[in-house]
Amino acid sequence: MSAEPATPASTTRLYLDELSAALERAREANAESLPAAARIIESVVAGNGIVHAFGSGHSQLAAMEISRRAGSIAALRVLFDPTWGAAEHLEGYGEALVADAPPESGDCLIAISQSGTTCAAVEVARRARAAGAQVIAVTSLRSSRRARPRHSSGLKLYQLADVVLDDGATGPDPGICLPGLAECVGPTSTVVAAALLQEVVVEAVAGLTARGIKAPVFRPNSQEGGRQHNDRLRARYRQRIGRIVR
User: For the chain, what is the total number of helices (H) and then of strands (E)?
Assistant: First the structure.
């Protein structure tokens, strides 16, 4: 986080500098966690399981970033939050979101919560663990360890995870302070979470390829044969992924 208030003359690249620093912190913090998370996803895809991704509010954007796009894996389902975080601290809401199609044994869950205290994320992670699915958490360990639990279980997201991807935040998000303004600007947590997840997907696909397994990766629709290729992948996973809103 920026230590001193910025001067107006320096604001042109303040966010990009802060983002670069945040990405570097995340890179260093996850030297072991990134390959561990990639191995989980690699194993799930190789075993014909499904990768579920969940975040509420802006954390949902990180989940959607790796979903249904060229370069992403078809074996991925976003557990969509239609309230966009408005109900994320209502106990029972996370359970309701996964009630119809919960993660199963042989699947994995990516749960994203910068604070790690979001009730919905805790409940979705608990449901996944109870079903025998592995959990990958994307959170700020520093913020989460300092925060008061919000769920009545007293649990935080990182305590339910098999692997934790730490976004490396050193303070509140957003963290760029400007003179004369009480509020800070320039949140980086969603961008960093998305970058970590893209890295995990790339490493998982690399692992599958090294094992001689053709990874179910979407192609650009504009590429020759791309739309037909993508239709075949969607048909392959439609039985389990076709039940979502997005």
Answer: 8, 5
